[in-house]
């Protein structure tokens, strides 16, 4: 039996507002699309949280034995600066500031993005399509929308007719916004506007004479609107209806609402079964933003070179910190919280190192049923919590319980002989699997820890020597003084000594 049959997954679906049991369209397979970065700037930490969320979701599906096709795009046609299809193209603006070709900007920031993903141990998606590589398909779907009367052409630009669409399908189904309210709120259309209604949105924009990124189309030279690329790339690689669509909360409206309208209008059916949105990052209780001076670049975090940080933190510490809260909650970022995370992560990292050295019992005579059951329950709890809407916070709490047992095995508080070997192996493999494969938390040894390990081994050797010389006063002093510092020395059966750091 595949793990996914044993441990079902429940997802909070933004579309229905309910937690639902995940039922894939194709048994044993998961198709997931996530809106990727617009590559005109360095990735900031808020983006990292979104991509980390979906990294862990795709990792967990794989761990359960699903075949996962994870599509995450690169937006390399600049979105216009405002949601109202106005303003400058973000990539062109950046290109002008840096005196580069738009495609140089795209290459530079795509590479930067990949490097940051690698640093945070965020795995690459199965397919990473780019908007500029799918202009033909975008033109094709826009043509179909025009033919169906759901889009109109004005002066070389094409707009989606929201009111017309709303006659057949409900617009606002994802965000809960009402079309009447949307039509009343905000700025009035002026005579310059090409749109019929202000809720309409651009599918294709005519390129002005100075616009660099441009492609020929049936409506003249221009470039695609903000939302159409995701509709095209998701349905091209995952089908007209697919399992999961993810992205940051800020994309729910208008971006994802427009994606639903475009795909439903063109294909006559809703594109996505489960919509998943990850929440924002705040800093000391405030929204993270460049203008407030509290946004972080990953490099600033690693080096500690930022006014809000006392020191630098490793990528896995930050990863662990983010996974300590559920993806749908806001997450507050502070130096204090990172310090606490660093300490917590170190404990888990040590348990990971320890568990790899533990072997199951070869003596099945002393097996205690309740001990075996306790370990089996911890294993089940990992899956139950992760299967409960990917609750990494609760899963980490279980891993901490497991790490306490691991230390008990190491210190001899519990003997491995008490546990059925099969359950022991399952326990060991589950701890390693959830740490490394599901949560992507790998062993990370800092310079300080390496030094500490070496110093402790010097002390262990001195203690051994003291015992050989029958200087028990000294050997006890070494043991007791270390104990006071929270380091427990253990005498192994074969005369080898090891240590556990308790704090
Ligand atoms: Zn998108």
**Gross morphology:** elongated
| Rg, Å, rounded | 28 Å
Which ligands are bound?
zinc ion
What does the largest sheet look like?
A: 4 strands, parallel
Total E-strand runs = 15
Strand proportion, as a percent range, falls in 5-15%
For the largest beta sheet, what order do the strands appear in spatially? Answer: 4-3-9-10
Low-confidence stretches: none
Helix content: 40-55%
Number of helices: 17
Q: Which class of secondary structure composition applies to the elements?
A: alpha/beta
Average pLDDT, all residues: 91
Notable characteristics:
single chain, 503 residues, alpha/beta, four-stranded antiparallel beta sheet, binds zinc ion
Topology:
Blueprint: H1 3-6, E1 10-13, E2 18-21, E3 29-34, H2 45-63, E4 67-72, H3 90-98, H4 102-119, H5 135-147, E5 151-154, E6 157-160, H6 162-168, H7 179-184, E7 201-206, E8 222-224, H8 228-238, E9 242-248, H9 252-267, E10 272-278, E11 281-283, E12 286-287, H10 298-303, H11 315-323, E13 331-333, H12 335-357, H13 369-387, H14 392-411, H15 421-438, H16 447-468, H17 472-484, E14 487-491, E15 497-501
Parallel strand pairs: 3-4, 3-9, 9-10, 11-13
Antiparallel strand pairs: 1-2, 5-6, 6-7, 7-8, 11-12, 14-15
Helix pairs in contact: 3-4, 8-9, 11-12, 12-14, 13-14, 13-15, 16-17
Zinc ion is lined by residues 35, 230, 255.
